[in-house]
Write a structure and sequence with these properties.
With 351 residues, the chain is α/β, with parallel strands linked by helices. It has nine helices and 13 strands. It folds into three domains: 135 residues, 2-Layer Sandwich (Nucleotidyltransferase, domain 5), CATH 3.30.420.40; 66 residues, Dna Ligase, domain 1; 118 residues, Nucleotidyltransferase, domain 5.
Length: 351
Protein backbone atom coordinates (compact mmCIF):
# COMPACT_ATOMS: atom_id res chain seq x y z
CA UNK A 1 0.00 0.00 0.00
CA UNK A 2 1.56 3.29 -1.12
CA UNK A 3 1.07 6.71 0.41
CA UNK A 4 3.00 9.15 -1.79
CA UNK A 5 4.33 9.65 -5.29
CA UNK A 6 8.08 9.37 -5.03
CA UNK A 7 10.44 11.96 -6.45
CA UNK A 8 13.69 11.46 -8.32
CA UNK A 9 15.94 10.90 -5.33
CA UNK A 10 18.18 7.95 -5.96
CA UNK A 11 18.31 6.40 -2.49
CA UNK A 12 15.87 3.69 -1.44
CA UNK A 13 15.54 2.73 2.22
CA UNK A 14 13.88 -0.40 3.59
CA UNK A 15 13.13 -0.63 7.32
CA UNK A 16 12.18 -3.96 8.86
CA UNK A 17 10.61 -3.51 12.30
CA UNK A 18 11.06 -6.85 14.04
CA UNK A 19 10.01 -8.08 17.45
CA UNK A 20 13.30 -7.18 19.12
CA UNK A 21 15.25 -5.45 16.37
CA UNK A 22 15.33 -2.74 13.75
CA UNK A 23 16.99 -3.59 10.43
CA UNK A 24 17.67 -1.12 7.64
CA UNK A 25 19.11 -1.34 4.14
CA UNK A 26 19.75 1.64 1.88
CA UNK A 27 20.13 0.93 -1.84
CA UNK A 28 21.07 3.14 -4.78
CA UNK A 29 20.17 2.69 -8.43
CA UNK A 30 22.77 3.42 -11.11
CA UNK A 31 21.50 2.71 -14.58
CA UNK A 32 20.18 -0.85 -14.46
CA UNK A 33 22.34 -1.73 -11.46
CA UNK A 34 21.28 -1.85 -7.81
CA UNK A 35 24.09 -0.83 -5.47
CA UNK A 36 24.39 -1.20 -1.71
CA UNK A 37 24.64 2.24 -0.14
CA UNK A 38 24.36 1.41 3.58
CA UNK A 39 22.91 -1.03 6.08
CA UNK A 40 22.36 -1.21 9.83
CA UNK A 41 20.64 -3.28 12.45
CA UNK A 42 20.05 -2.91 16.15
CA UNK A 43 19.19 -6.07 18.06
CA UNK A 44 18.28 -6.84 21.67
CA UNK A 45 18.43 -3.18 22.63
CA UNK A 46 15.66 -3.64 25.21
CA UNK A 47 12.95 -5.97 26.40
CA UNK A 48 10.35 -3.95 24.48
CA UNK A 49 8.74 -5.66 21.52
CA UNK A 50 8.99 -3.17 18.64
CA UNK A 51 6.08 -4.75 16.79
CA UNK A 52 3.64 -4.56 19.67
CA UNK A 53 4.54 -1.45 21.64
CA UNK A 54 2.23 1.55 21.17
CA UNK A 55 4.73 4.12 22.47
CA UNK A 56 5.10 6.38 19.43
CA UNK A 57 7.91 8.39 21.03
CA UNK A 58 9.97 5.30 21.85
CA UNK A 59 9.66 3.84 18.36
CA UNK A 60 10.43 7.09 16.55
CA UNK A 61 13.46 7.75 18.77
CA UNK A 62 14.77 4.22 18.21
CA UNK A 63 14.46 4.60 14.44
CA UNK A 64 16.10 8.04 14.50
CA UNK A 65 18.96 6.73 16.64
CA UNK A 66 19.79 3.80 14.34
CA UNK A 67 19.56 5.95 11.20
CA UNK A 68 21.78 8.66 12.68
CA UNK A 69 24.43 6.28 14.00
CA UNK A 70 24.56 4.42 10.67
CA UNK A 71 24.66 7.62 8.62
CA UNK A 72 21.55 6.84 6.56
CA UNK A 73 20.93 9.59 4.00
CA UNK A 74 17.57 8.53 2.55
CA UNK A 75 14.61 10.68 3.64
CA UNK A 76 11.85 8.23 2.75
CA UNK A 77 11.39 4.56 3.52
CA UNK A 78 9.38 1.46 2.69
CA UNK A 79 8.48 -0.28 5.94
CA UNK A 80 7.45 -3.83 6.85
CA UNK A 81 4.13 -4.85 8.32
CA UNK A 82 4.46 -7.82 10.71
CA UNK A 83 3.05 -11.05 9.28
CA UNK A 84 1.00 -11.81 12.40
CA UNK A 85 -0.86 -8.47 12.12
CA UNK A 86 -1.88 -8.78 8.45
CA UNK A 87 -4.74 -10.95 7.22
CA UNK A 88 -4.26 -12.57 3.81
CA UNK A 89 -6.35 -14.90 1.68
CA UNK A 90 -6.89 -16.00 -1.92
CA UNK A 91 -10.46 -15.23 -2.97
CA UNK A 92 -12.43 -16.09 -6.10
CA UNK A 93 -14.49 -13.44 -7.92
CA UNK A 94 -17.03 -15.00 -10.28
CA UNK A 95 -18.13 -13.38 -13.55
CA UNK A 96 -15.98 -10.32 -12.96
CA UNK A 97 -14.80 -7.58 -15.32
CA UNK A 98 -12.87 -4.34 -14.88
CA UNK A 99 -16.03 -2.51 -13.76
CA UNK A 100 -17.19 -5.03 -11.18
CA UNK A 101 -13.94 -6.49 -9.84
CA UNK A 102 -13.41 -3.94 -7.03
CA UNK A 103 -16.95 -4.38 -5.70
CA UNK A 104 -16.55 -8.14 -5.94
CA UNK A 105 -13.35 -8.02 -3.90
CA UNK A 106 -15.07 -5.98 -1.18
CA UNK A 107 -18.00 -8.37 -1.00
CA UNK A 108 -15.76 -11.42 -0.71
CA UNK A 109 -13.54 -9.63 1.80
CA UNK A 110 -16.51 -9.27 4.14
CA UNK A 111 -16.81 -13.07 4.19
CA UNK A 112 -13.19 -13.90 4.99
CA UNK A 113 -11.84 -11.01 7.09
CA UNK A 114 -12.83 -11.41 10.75
CA UNK A 115 -12.90 -7.65 11.45
CA UNK A 116 -15.24 -4.98 10.04
CA UNK A 117 -13.91 -3.67 6.73
CA UNK A 118 -14.13 -0.08 8.00
CA UNK A 119 -11.36 -1.00 10.47
CA UNK A 120 -9.08 -2.39 7.74
CA UNK A 121 -6.94 -1.11 4.88
CA UNK A 122 -7.41 -3.53 1.98
CA UNK A 123 -4.90 -4.27 -0.75
CA UNK A 124 -5.26 -6.87 -3.49
CA UNK A 125 -3.55 -8.30 -6.54
CA UNK A 126 -5.00 -10.35 -9.40
CA UNK A 127 -3.34 -13.76 -9.66
CA UNK A 128 -2.09 -14.72 -13.15
CA UNK A 129 -3.78 -17.65 -14.89
CA UNK A 130 -2.06 -20.91 -15.83
CA UNK A 131 -0.55 -19.23 -18.88
CA UNK A 132 1.00 -16.49 -16.79
CA UNK A 133 -1.42 -13.83 -18.07
CA UNK A 134 -3.44 -11.48 -15.85
CA UNK A 135 -7.14 -12.13 -16.47
CA UNK A 136 -9.44 -9.11 -16.94
CA UNK A 137 -12.80 -10.87 -16.97
CA UNK A 138 -14.52 -14.11 -16.05
CA UNK A 139 -13.67 -16.03 -12.89
CA UNK A 140 -10.73 -14.20 -11.34
CA UNK A 141 -8.54 -15.21 -8.43
CA UNK A 142 -7.32 -12.39 -6.20
CA UNK A 143 -4.71 -12.33 -3.44
CA UNK A 144 -6.22 -10.16 -0.71
CA UNK A 145 -4.48 -8.55 2.26
CA UNK A 146 -6.02 -6.55 5.06
CA UNK A 147 -4.11 -4.41 7.56
CA UNK A 148 -5.68 -2.84 10.66
CA UNK A 149 -6.08 0.91 10.24
CA UNK A 150 -4.90 1.35 13.82
CA UNK A 151 -1.54 -0.23 12.93
CA UNK A 152 -1.21 1.82 9.73
CA UNK A 153 -1.96 5.05 11.62
CA UNK A 154 0.65 4.14 14.25
CA UNK A 155 3.34 3.70 11.61
CA UNK A 156 2.38 6.97 9.90
CA UNK A 157 2.70 8.81 13.23
CA UNK A 158 5.98 7.07 14.12
CA UNK A 159 7.74 7.98 10.89
CA UNK A 160 6.30 11.49 10.80
CA UNK A 161 7.79 12.09 14.24
CA UNK A 162 11.08 10.50 13.14
CA UNK A 163 11.25 12.90 10.21
CA UNK A 164 11.11 10.12 7.59
CA UNK A 165 8.61 10.04 4.73
CA UNK A 166 6.67 6.78 4.82
CA UNK A 167 6.65 5.83 1.14
CA UNK A 168 4.76 2.57 1.55
CA UNK A 169 3.96 -0.33 3.85
CA UNK A 170 4.36 -3.95 2.80
CA UNK A 171 3.84 -7.36 4.35
CA UNK A 172 7.12 -9.12 5.18
CA UNK A 173 6.35 -12.09 2.92
CA UNK A 174 6.22 -9.96 -0.25
CA UNK A 175 9.57 -8.38 0.65
CA UNK A 176 11.10 -11.84 1.06
CA UNK A 177 9.69 -12.95 -2.29
CA UNK A 178 11.28 -9.92 -3.94
CA UNK A 179 14.73 -10.35 -2.38
CA UNK A 180 14.98 -14.15 -2.34
CA UNK A 181 12.93 -15.35 -5.33
CA UNK A 182 12.60 -12.49 -7.79
CA UNK A 183 10.83 -13.49 -11.00
CA UNK A 184 11.14 -17.26 -10.47
CA UNK A 185 7.60 -18.65 -10.93
CA UNK A 186 8.32 -22.18 -9.65
CA UNK A 187 6.55 -23.30 -6.44
CA UNK A 188 8.81 -23.13 -3.40
CA UNK A 189 8.68 -22.52 0.33
CA UNK A 190 10.23 -19.67 2.29
CA UNK A 191 10.94 -20.38 5.96
CA UNK A 192 11.78 -17.24 7.93
CA UNK A 193 13.29 -18.23 11.28
CA UNK A 194 13.25 -15.12 13.42
CA UNK A 195 14.04 -14.38 17.05
CA UNK A 196 10.46 -14.85 18.27
CA UNK A 197 8.56 -16.62 15.49
CA UNK A 198 8.98 -18.81 12.42
CA UNK A 199 6.90 -17.92 9.36
CA UNK A 200 6.38 -20.43 6.54
CA UNK A 201 5.05 -19.44 3.11
CA UNK A 202 4.56 -21.47 -0.03
CA UNK A 203 5.03 -19.14 -3.00
CA UNK A 204 4.02 -19.70 -6.61
CA UNK A 205 4.03 -17.08 -9.38
CA UNK A 206 5.35 -14.59 -6.76
CA UNK A 207 2.15 -15.04 -4.71
CA UNK A 208 2.19 -16.59 -1.21
CA UNK A 209 -0.55 -19.20 -1.57
CA UNK A 210 -0.14 -20.81 1.86
CA UNK A 211 1.05 -19.22 5.10
CA UNK A 212 1.66 -20.56 8.60
CA UNK A 213 3.30 -19.08 11.68
CA UNK A 214 4.89 -20.85 14.65
CA UNK A 215 6.15 -19.66 18.03
CA UNK A 216 9.02 -22.18 17.82
CA UNK A 217 11.99 -20.13 16.65
CA UNK A 218 15.64 -19.26 17.23
CA UNK A 219 15.08 -18.16 20.83
CA UNK A 220 13.28 -21.45 21.57
CA UNK A 221 16.51 -23.33 20.91
CA UNK A 222 18.49 -20.90 23.05
CA UNK A 223 16.04 -21.23 25.96
CA UNK A 224 16.13 -25.03 25.71
CA UNK A 225 19.93 -25.03 25.86
CA UNK A 226 19.94 -22.60 28.79
CA UNK A 227 17.52 -24.76 30.77
CA UNK A 228 19.35 -28.01 30.01
CA UNK A 229 22.87 -26.72 30.62
CA UNK A 230 22.16 -24.34 33.49
CA UNK A 231 23.29 -21.27 31.54
CA UNK A 232 22.03 -17.74 31.27
CA UNK A 233 20.28 -16.84 28.03
CA UNK A 234 23.35 -14.91 26.84
CA UNK A 235 25.64 -17.84 27.62
CA UNK A 236 23.35 -20.26 25.80
CA UNK A 237 23.23 -17.96 22.76
CA UNK A 238 27.03 -17.92 22.64
CA UNK A 239 27.13 -21.70 23.10
CA UNK A 240 24.73 -22.06 20.16
CA UNK A 241 27.00 -19.90 18.01
CA UNK A 242 30.06 -21.90 19.00
CA UNK A 243 28.22 -25.15 18.28
CA UNK A 244 27.18 -23.82 14.88
CA UNK A 245 30.79 -23.15 13.93
CA UNK A 246 31.91 -26.62 15.05
CA UNK A 247 29.11 -28.37 13.14
CA UNK A 248 29.76 -26.36 9.99
CA UNK A 249 33.49 -27.06 10.22
CA UNK A 250 33.08 -30.82 10.68
CA UNK A 251 31.37 -32.23 7.59
CA UNK A 252 31.26 -35.70 9.18
CA UNK A 253 28.78 -34.55 11.80
CA UNK A 254 25.49 -35.05 10.01
CA UNK A 255 23.13 -34.93 12.96
CA UNK A 256 22.34 -32.13 15.34
CA UNK A 257 22.38 -32.77 19.10
CA UNK A 258 19.23 -34.56 20.25
CA UNK A 259 17.98 -31.69 22.41
CA UNK A 260 18.08 -29.32 19.45
CA UNK A 261 16.39 -31.73 17.03
CA UNK A 262 13.60 -32.28 19.56
CA UNK A 263 13.15 -28.52 19.92
CA UNK A 264 13.03 -28.05 16.15
CA UNK A 265 10.59 -30.90 15.52
CA UNK A 266 7.45 -28.68 15.35
CA UNK A 267 9.06 -26.71 12.50
CA UNK A 268 9.92 -29.90 10.61
CA UNK A 269 6.39 -31.22 11.16
CA UNK A 270 4.81 -27.99 9.87
CA UNK A 271 7.08 -27.88 6.83
CA UNK A 272 6.15 -31.48 5.96
CA UNK A 273 2.46 -30.70 6.43
CA UNK A 274 2.61 -27.76 4.02
CA UNK A 275 4.56 -29.78 1.47
CA UNK A 276 2.01 -32.61 1.59
CA UNK A 277 -0.99 -30.26 1.54
CA UNK A 278 0.31 -28.30 -1.44
CA UNK A 279 1.04 -31.52 -3.35
CA UNK A 280 -2.46 -32.86 -2.66
CA UNK A 281 -4.12 -29.64 -3.84
CA UNK A 282 -1.96 -28.94 -6.90
CA UNK A 283 -0.60 -32.31 -8.02
CA UNK A 284 2.97 -30.97 -8.16
CA UNK A 285 5.99 -30.85 -5.89
CA UNK A 286 7.83 -27.89 -4.49
CA UNK A 287 11.10 -27.10 -6.23
CA UNK A 288 12.98 -26.18 -3.04
CA UNK A 289 12.86 -24.57 0.39
CA UNK A 290 14.60 -21.27 1.07
CA UNK A 291 15.67 -20.46 4.64
CA UNK A 292 15.92 -16.89 5.87
CA UNK A 293 16.04 -14.94 9.12
CA UNK A 294 18.77 -14.81 11.74
CA UNK A 295 18.01 -18.36 12.92
CA UNK A 296 18.67 -19.87 9.49
CA UNK A 297 22.45 -19.61 9.88
CA UNK A 298 22.60 -21.57 13.13
CA UNK A 299 23.40 -25.24 13.48
CA UNK A 300 23.65 -26.34 9.83
CA UNK A 301 19.85 -26.24 9.50
CA UNK A 302 19.74 -26.34 5.70
CA UNK A 303 21.42 -29.75 5.58
CA UNK A 304 19.37 -31.05 8.48
CA UNK A 305 16.02 -29.99 7.00
CA UNK A 306 17.04 -31.33 3.58
CA UNK A 307 17.78 -34.79 5.01
CA UNK A 308 14.59 -34.85 7.09
CA UNK A 309 12.28 -33.71 4.30
CA UNK A 310 14.07 -35.16 1.27
CA UNK A 311 13.97 -31.89 -0.62
CA UNK A 312 16.53 -29.27 -1.63
CA UNK A 313 16.97 -26.70 1.14
CA UNK A 314 19.18 -23.63 0.77
CA UNK A 315 19.93 -20.48 2.73
CA UNK A 316 18.57 -17.59 0.69
CA UNK A 317 20.87 -14.94 -0.75
CA UNK A 318 19.08 -11.57 -0.71
CA UNK A 319 22.18 -9.86 -2.15
CA UNK A 320 22.00 -11.75 -5.47
CA UNK A 321 20.81 -8.68 -7.41
CA UNK A 322 22.73 -6.11 -5.37
CA UNK A 323 26.29 -5.00 -6.14
CA UNK A 324 28.66 -4.27 -3.26
CA UNK A 325 32.42 -4.09 -2.52
CA UNK A 326 33.80 -7.62 -2.61
CA UNK A 327 35.98 -7.02 0.44
CA UNK A 328 32.86 -6.95 2.65
CA UNK A 329 31.33 -10.06 1.10
CA UNK A 330 32.03 -12.34 4.12
CA UNK A 331 30.26 -9.90 6.43
CA UNK A 332 27.29 -9.46 4.10
CA UNK A 333 26.88 -13.23 3.67
CA UNK A 334 26.68 -13.54 7.45
CA UNK A 335 24.11 -10.79 7.98
CA UNK A 336 22.18 -11.33 4.72
CA UNK A 337 19.49 -13.66 6.13
CA UNK A 338 18.77 -11.13 8.89
CA UNK A 339 18.42 -8.31 6.37
CA UNK A 340 16.40 -10.14 3.68
CA UNK A 341 13.14 -8.35 4.50
CA UNK A 342 14.80 -4.91 4.61
CA UNK A 343 16.54 -5.58 1.27
CA UNK A 344 13.24 -6.56 -0.33
CA UNK A 345 11.58 -3.45 1.07
CA UNK A 346 14.30 -1.19 -0.35
CA UNK A 347 13.91 -2.88 -3.75
CA UNK A 348 10.18 -2.22 -3.91
CA UNK A 349 10.42 1.35 -5.20
CA UNK A 350 13.32 0.53 -7.53
CA UNK A 351 11.41 -2.09 -9.51
Amino acid sequence: MSFITLGNENLFLGIDIGDSSLKMVELKKKGQKILLSNYAFSENVSEINFNRVDDINYLSQAITKVMKEAGMKAKRATVSLPTFAVFSSIINIANADKNTLANGVNEEAKKVIPLPLEEMVLDWKVIPDKNGKTPVSGNIQVFLTGSPKKLVRKYIDVFKQAGVILASLETETFSLVRSLIGDDKAPMMIVEIGANSTDLSIVKDSIPVLNRSLTVCASTVTKALAAKLGMTYAQAEQFKLDLSFSLNADASQEDLPQLITKTLEPIVTEMQYLIDFYRSQNDENLEKIILSGGGSLFLNLADYFSKRLNIKVIIGNPWSRVEYPQEIRPVLEEVGPKLAVAIGLAMREIE
